[in-house]
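Q: What would this chain look like folded?
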Amino acid sequence: MRNRFFLLCGAILMSLNIQAQSQELRIMSYNVRNGYGIDKIHSYDRPAKVINKVKPDIVAVQELDSVTRRYPDYVLGELAERCGMNAYYGPAISFGGGKYGVGILTRKPALSVKQYALPCHSEPRALLIVEMEDYYFACTHLSLHAEDRMTSMGIIKDIVSKLDKPVFLAGDLNAEPGDPEIQKLAEFCTIHSRTDKPTWDAANPTVCIDYIVSYGCNAKCKKAKIIKEKKASDHRPIFVDVKF
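A: My prediction, written as structure tokens:
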């Protein structure tokens, strides 16, 4: 009887310890198109307001100029300042006297940052990864060409499989849920974002091309939402709450 009591106590303590180690994370993805809205109004305040309302822990951001003739500002920095977050930029190409690429905003400073090249017929793409204390977070914006996207899936799988913590990936993947590239992604990742509702274009969306996924962990999605923002960009932002 005494032994059974101690075994029960041990099981309870182990359960409490496991629960204490689990974390909740709010992840957001937003193709901001440099703050150029559907209504042709340019504003950093509008996408920043959307981000601030969601209050994410981490954000994957796509379509970002950095000191170009088109947008002479460091766009990700403008958003980071307005959101009170850390900015990590991943330039994919040289453009207009500056750079163009993707970025990540974080509440807590990243431990490290790495960038990988991804293929594209028309312009190079990038996979940006930041290392956080208990996980990695990746952002990308894939090619408009299906062949490039499928090749990218193999590259991404190879990269994330070598990481030693849970991995979350988010971005504009330019493919619909039924496309072979997304089916390939689903073979090695868990898709947490909604795929039953469209994300592009923002005013009258018809296709879902924005995703948030996980790799290498038992992440449970507690909430997934597509935000009905119709003007700030041509994409609707998405977010998920996960426990891992």
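The CA atoms of residues 201 and 234 lie 5 Å apart.
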